[in-house]
Specification:
Blueprint: E1 8-12, H1 16-28, E2 32-36, H2 39-48, E3 54-58, H3 67-74, E4 82-87, H4 91-96, E5 110-114, H5 119-134
Parallel strand pairs: 1-2, 1-3, 3-4, 4-5
Length: 136
């Protein structure tokens, strides 16, 4: 059931079905999940809470800002947060479109998962993200 330590994970996805599915998987592994369907919801969380271990964000959020821009903004609140970007578009295509370059995030705790992915693959990514931090 998870890595033995409960993490606080913020998931941002503008599709309710994806958001609910991700939250259920993560909760079933014993982590605390905060969900947000937009940048404003995520920022409200940041204004109220001091702790966040992992941010999972869809790269292509509907609205004026991309998931990458939202992640960059949230790093001001949580500079050591691990980030897992998710998208139905491949990383190569996102790079080609100029939407995501993982090198712009200096943390070793930044990764990408292409949708669709399995629950075990998501949990491995979360565990790896948390493991890098705890190895410091």
């Amino acid at each position: 059931m998870g890595i033995g330590r409960m993490a606080i994970i913020l998931v941002i996805d503008d599709y309710a079905e994806s958001l609910d599915a991700l939250a259920n998987i993560i909760r079933n592994w014993g982590h605390e999940v905060i969900t947000a369907r937009c940048e404003e919801d995520a920022c409200q969380y940041c204004e109220r809470y001091a702790a966040l271990d992992v941010l999972i964000v869809d790269v292509k959020l509907r609205g004026s800002r991309s998931g990458v821009e939202v992640a960059s903004e949230l790093m001001a609140f949580y500079p050591d947060v691990g980030i897992i970007f998710v998208s139905g578009t491949s990383l190569d295509d996102l790079r080609g479109e100029g939407l995501l370059d993982l090198h712009q995030f200096p943390s070793k705790r930044t990764s990408f998962l292409e949708k669709p992915f399995t629950a075990p693959k998501l949990m491995r990514s979360i565990e790896q993200t948390l493991g890098v931090r705890s190895a410091k």
